[in-house]
Task: inverse folding
């Protein structure tokens, strides 16, 4: 990893060996720019980059590239998310070019939740290419300066390429190999699914380190602070691919309702502390869902401030 | 085979609500095998329609026929002499049947009596499952003989996605995650190496995406065979 691939802030932070700290924000369900700006304002100076989600959970929102541009106007660096559910290869390549032309330098390649989860279950799902192939496509555009059809690109988009990994999905034994495939495909960094089952994650990371994957790619551990026991229950039941141990739900239920948010944050802070020391973990991806205003406090208490200037 | 589900009696009745004399056409092909459009089902539909219309005080005259195959002009031609005797016809064949009929008999209206769903087979008595999406370039040997195009809800070539849990697909708890099955099969047979590396981007040109398809067998066209 000698030369910079994209020159993004996130890339520089990771390359300089700092413990990265990224945030996440969903675009509005509408064109409410003020609301988006309000949410983003809490993150300024507290994180290295912010994921702008792409119709997450298959619910229609403002496009992730437009959200990314609005984010840049706020002085934040976007991590532009792209799912394979809604666009074919033509739309994907043109959106990548458009986003890059407007200044986007990081992107995250995802399959996307199935549309049956969202608010337009009657939609056709595209899946022209899958998330693994999307990584190879973005890499080809960047490194070879070519479209999928091998035609030259007139000014190639230089993206820092991200991918997701869910260590808690099945078959568990295969997950490190799938991660290895994503890295071989060209992922420069990985953001994991929200981690709640620490025991399982430790085991997963041990396998990842044994395979040497952490040396070929930066792995950011996904953290979501629980607002209350109800949220933990809901996620465990309805969000695909979540592994929420009974012990965590118990711990949240064990305190007074008004103190559950603080207990959730405490658990997140303990996690971050452990990730800082965990071999193979290069940073944390904090997904404080509709809780952006809590990010400054969490970042402060986690001891990740000030963010490095690189 | 091609699998289909019968449309509801109400829907079929509504299609021919203003007709007094109709023909119901079954097919001895796939729809007979999947118990939706063979002789038995044609008889049941005709009887149910007659009863329903009688109740309304609006009797309907229904004749039935079951063709050898509705996807074959030779058999479709067999109703040439009678097809004009009806105000409408209902076909219980897959979507191919009413089209072959409509193409041959331009003055008659053929209503689809079934919803054609997929290419598949019966996994147990009364339960059919999808197996193939007719993508036009079969590669199931790369996936342990299991098709991710038709059977993964996201048609992933490099699965399983992050929603796979305990062998079940994120979309529906009654749907197997085919990628879980593919991976397990490879692991159990010590062929995990087959899944290392990225499966290349697929060309959908041979699938429906390339436009309606045609299959030409020159030797047959020329009558040599
Ligand atoms: S790969 Fe294509 S042709 Fe083969 S079973 Fe799957 S959908 Fe059908
Ligand atoms: S859970 Fe399995 S079958 Fe369902 S979409 Fe994901 S990989 Fe495909």
Result:
């Amino acid at each position: 990893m000698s030369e910079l691939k994209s020159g993004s802030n996130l890339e520089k932070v990771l390359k300089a060996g700092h413990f990265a700290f990224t945030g996440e924000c969903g675009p509005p369900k509408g064109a409410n720019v003020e609301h988006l700006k309000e949410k983003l304002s809490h993150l300024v100076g507290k994180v290295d980059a912010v994921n702008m989600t792409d119709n997450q959970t298959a619910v229609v929102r403002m496009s992730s590239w437009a959200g990314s541009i609005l984010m840049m106007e706020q002085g934040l660096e976007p991590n532009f998310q792209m799912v394979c559910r809604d666009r074919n290869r033509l739309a994907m390549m043109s959106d990548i070019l458009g986003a890059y032309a407007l200044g986007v330098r990081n992107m995250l390649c995802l399959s996307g939740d199935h549309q049956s989860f969202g608010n337009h279950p009657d939609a056709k799902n595209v899946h022209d290419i899958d998330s693994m192939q999307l990584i190879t496509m973005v890499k080809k555009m960047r490194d070879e300066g070519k479209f999928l059809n091998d035609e030259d690109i007139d000014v190639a988009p230089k993206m820092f390429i991200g991918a997701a990994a869910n260590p808690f999905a099945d078959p568990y034994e295969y997950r490190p190999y799938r991660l290895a495939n994503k890295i071989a495909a060209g992922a420069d960094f990985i953001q994991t699914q929200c981690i709640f089952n620490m025991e399982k994650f430790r085991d997963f990371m041990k396998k990842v380190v044994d395979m040497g994957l952490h040396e070929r790619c930066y792995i950011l551990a996904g953290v979501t602070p629980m607002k209350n026991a109800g949220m933990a229950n809901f996620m465990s039941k309805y969000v695909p691919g979540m592994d929420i141990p009974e012990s965590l739900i118990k711990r949240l239920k064990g305190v007074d309702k008004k103190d559950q948010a603080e207990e959730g944050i405490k658990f997140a802070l303990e996690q971050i502390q452990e990730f800082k020391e965990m071999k193979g973990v290069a940073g944390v991806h904090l997904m404080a869902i509709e809780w952006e205003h809590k990010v400054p406090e969490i970042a402060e208490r986690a001891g990740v401030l000030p963010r490095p200037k690189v | 085979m091609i699998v289909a589900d019968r449309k509801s009696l109400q829907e079929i009745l509504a299609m021919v609500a203003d007709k007094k004399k109709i023909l119901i056409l079954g097919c001895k092909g796939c729809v007979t095998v999947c118990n939706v459009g063979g002789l038995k089902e044609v008889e049941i539909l005709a009887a149910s329609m007659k009863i329903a219309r009688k109740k309304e005080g609006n009797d309907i005259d229904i004749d039935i026929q079951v063709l050898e195959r509705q996807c074959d002009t030779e058999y479709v031609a067999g109703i040439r002499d009678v097809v004009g005797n009806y105000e409408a016809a209902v076909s219980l064949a897959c979507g191919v049947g009413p089209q072959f009929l409509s193409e041959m008999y331009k003055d008659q209206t053929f209503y689809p009596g079934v919803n054609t769903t997929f290419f598949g087979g019966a996994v147990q008595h009364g339960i059919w499952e999808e197996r193939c999406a007719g993508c036009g370039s079969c590669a199931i040997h790369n996936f342990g003989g299991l098709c991710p195009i038709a059977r993964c809800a996201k048609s992933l070539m490099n699965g399983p996605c992050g929603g796979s849990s305990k062998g079940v697909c994120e979309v529906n708890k009654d749907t197997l995650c085919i990628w879980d099955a593919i991976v397990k099969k490879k692991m159990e047979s010590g062929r995990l190496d087959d899944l290392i590396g990225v499966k290349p981007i697929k060309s959908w040109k041979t699938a429906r995406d390339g436009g309606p398809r045609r299959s030409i067998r020159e030797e047959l066209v020329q009558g040599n065979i």
User: Anything to note?
Assistant: Chain A has one domain: 9-302. The domain at 9-302 of chain A is CATH 3.20.20.220 (TIM Barrel). The two ends of chain A are 16 Å apart (CA to CA). Chain A has a mean pLDDT of 97.
